[in-house]
What does this fold into?
Amino acid sequence: MPQQLDTDWWRDAVVYQIYPRSFADADGDGIGDLPGMTARLGHLAALGVDAVWLSPFYVSPQADAGYDVADYTDVDPLFGTLDDADRFIAAAHEAGIRVIVDLVANHSSDRHLWFQAALAAGPGSPERARYLFRTGRGPRGELPPNNWLSVFGGSAWERLEDGDWYLHLFDRAQPDLDWTNPEVAELFDDVLRFWMARGVDGFRIDVAHGFVKAEGLPDADYDAHPMGSGFDRGPMWDQDAVHDIYRRWRRVLEEAGPGHILVAEAWVGPAERMARYVRPDEMQQSFNFPYMMAGWSAPRLRGVIDESLGANDAVGATTTWVLSNHDVVRHASRLGLPDPTGWPNGVGPRDPQPDAALGLRRARALTLLSLALPGSAYLYQGEELGLPEHTLLDDDARRDPSFFRHDGAQAGRDGCRVPLPWAAAAPAYGFSPSGASWLPQPEVFGDLAVDRQEGDPDSTLAFYRRALTLRRERRLGAGTLSWQPTGDEVLEFVNRRTRVVANLSGSPIALPDGAVLLASGPDAAEAAADGFLEPNAAVWLEASAG
Ligand code: NOJ
It folds into this structure.
């Protein structure tokens, strides 16, 4: 670790999400692994990130790409060994990069020892009481216990041959745990301790708003809270008692010493409700999904920025800025869709296709805006290369359970999970020494490979490196935002000595005075030198004179 023990490091950190199965494959099986990640840490050090968040690499049958955990304290052989995890953590720390791991505690895998024991023990047993087993409705119990739907499509209940039903808010291979059972909380205290003892600096809490269900599991009113609207409400989400769990975990973290953090994945609104997860005795951060979903609209973005900063400030937390992750259409494609505020569950060959050039221009502009906002920024692997969503994946190649549970009517999330291109001329674009890749990569990945972008000052990679350097030098993450008056589809603010202007309108605008520090693209840089900001572009200007 670098010398200064900065226990508040997360407040303005840039955190890079590694999706292990798609980052770098060392052993040639076509699935990324821990040794591959360790070998590529130099890329992250050169990019200038403060921390990484690793999606799950634990023992798992991979029914939901590792978000179905069969053993929380061991590594799946697909990704390596516990020693490989130790080596990765040590090498990351050596490079000054902190490590956050994923904690999937709403549900386990159906192959977890606990669930296997519950199946064997039968109805009414203490083993079943660790999950949400219920008897069905109807004269013979043949109807599910309530009307809840799985987030991935279809009913959230599965029936066993012995007649009991169990709840799974996601895939049937992901049975929900019963968090009112003290054994469940005890298990996860130990999981937290286990990984902190191995050196991890924090946890990203999967489905943080879902652990506790309303008493009696009442029917949901899907007319009031339609599925797919993004912000989950209803009796399975955002129940007050979830906060007791985070207070408990905060104490477990504190036992391990300062500097460890919890980050909530909670699809909760409005902002005040979300801020309850980051009160002083709970988590440190939560992902800002309203910001991610604000699309390409200046008033919406400004509204979300103000609301989230206001709500988080009120509880003393910092705000996070996030545009992409492994569950959503990559922002370089999303912003090029015919409706750039739309929010599809993936884009497939039968869907309207994005305008790639427009999407990338807007993505770079919005990234530049995000990286100048006070707080912490989360990047998703590959966005620093400007990678698009793979929108033409064949149905045969798809793996996401949400594609199958929607009977193929929604493309699902595979398109943002395609393995990274490292070298244009190598097999699998350098992802894997054998050329194997668990999802096929589109041809455009050749042009976007890391080695193609290295040394090209106009590349998206060079742009990200420059933005992160300036952000750090200018201490933008620890600054404050002051809006400047503008037209409707323009955003302008000053943070410390940096003025940020983003043009979301359809025509060029005149720029205020100030030397250009960074523009979102080469054309934008040229125009900015002449005092104009093009449409779909953003710029950072020196604001010291103003
Ligand atoms: C959220 C994760 O990000 C997603 O990938 C996963 O499918 C669900 N939680 C269920 O664990």
Observations:
- The first strand starts at residue 14 and ends at 18.
- Residues 1-5 have pLDDT under 50 and may be disordered.
- The radius of gyration is 23 Å.
